[in-house]
Amino acid sequence: MKKILNQRETIIFDMLNGFIKAERDHIAVSKEHDRVLYRKEKQEGKVGIVLGGGSGHEPLFFGLLGKNLADAVAVGNVFAAPTPQTVLAAIHEANQGSGVICLFGNYAGDVLNFDLAKEMADSDGIAVVNVAISDDIASAPKEYGADRRGIAGDLFVIKEVAAAAAKGYSLERCQRIAEECNQRTYSIGVGIKPGTNPLNGKPSFTLNADEIEFGLGIHGEPGIEKMPIFSAEELVKRMYSLFDEEITVYSEKEVIVCVNGLGSTTLMELYIITNEFIDLLEDNEFLVLDTVVGNFCTTQEMAGFSLTVQILTEEIKELYQMEAMSPHYFHKESY
């Protein structure tokens, strides 16, 4: 796989430097740690929002540094969790006097390192709450929801918890909101071509020419099954059947939707998928408040997509509708 790089050893450094140069008016690199980026504008007394995870999933996570979004981001190596020291430095940058909430995908390395950083921050007198996002319904059955991976549903949880912090809510209230948002967020992905690790050029999984990986993870983790490729209509129907088991238990019927490309899937394909998915939701009496379509959580040049549905409460709806702006995501109530 051809990639336009310098030395493989400097991939993260070169990427972050380019991002800082493009966004220098609003975002800076921490003097404490060169893998930590933070938002220059501060809001004294606000709960700080820290994001973190491995590189290679851009624009997650540093692309969400911005107004009413993240305050600081801890950046790991390619497909690897940030170190506890990196996370601790991000906590220091995000701390504005009312504690910090850390949001990250539910992967063993991230959970371990964020927990270690929390212990160190506690020793520094900073109250920290960690919430591991676990929206991938293909990765574990419903009764083991806490074991599920975090994928593109991260976007909605981050958006809403950051809005709660921007409103001046307490750390305890932000934690409750984060946990409820996470519990109400469901995603599933499909891969049709692997991405490659830029450090070694190896594909994340293998498929025959006529196969797809149904339910795969963002690092290429195996899904539910390999199956022949078929039409967008039939594929989305199969995905929806898994959502149906999760979302029909709610009395609320208002939802938001994300159709996420995994890196190289075209907008043409994503909008075809969106057309099928929205029809299914509306046919099943769900009211779609908003739909976002694009690349939010990727795996290099992986081809495929994920679908996310979040079931709204009035509180979550209000938080989602707050204006937010960052280099790679924006939300306005109307435009």
TrEMBL record:
Taxonomy, superkingdom: Bacteria
SUPFAM superfamilies, per database record: DAK1/DegV-like
One Pfam family it belongs to: Dak1
Domain DhaK as annotated: residue spans: 7-329
GO biological process: glycerol catabolic process
One GO CC term on file: cytosol
GO MF annotations, alphabetized: glycerone kinase activity
Full protein name: DhaK domain-containing protein
Organism name: Shouchella clausii (Alkalihalobacillus clausii)
